[in-house]
Write a structure and sequence with these properties.
The protein is mainly alpha-helical. The chain has 3 helices and 2 strands, in the order βαβαα. Strands 1-2 form a two-stranded parallel ribbon. The longest helix has 20 residues. The relative contact order is 0.13.
């Protein structure tokens, strides 16, 4: 099964990405650097949410609904 690794430390071309999108047998994987960056971002967001500070678009609405509070359920969102 063909595999394409995605991330800033991979050298996948646009053509390879299009080919992978068109081939249901191609497995897409995130690079180690990408997974590490996503984990760091998740941890940072968890710290911010734990502080109780409003986070635009996550704990608040967006645009004209900014004053609305959104329900944040990390268990549902994964």
């Amino acid at each position: 099964m063909p595999t394409l690794t995605l991330g800033p430390d991979s050298n996948a071309s646009a053509e390879e990405l299009v080919g992978a999108a068109r081939d249901p047998k191609t497995l897409l994987r995130f690079s180690t650097q990408s997974l590490s960056a996503m984990a760091s971002s998740h941890e940072a967001l968890d710290r911010i949410l734990s502080s109780g500070q409003p986070v635009y678009g996550i704990t608040t609405g967006v645009g004209p609904f900014i004053e609305d509070k959104a329900h944040v359920d990390s268990e549902r969102q994964g």
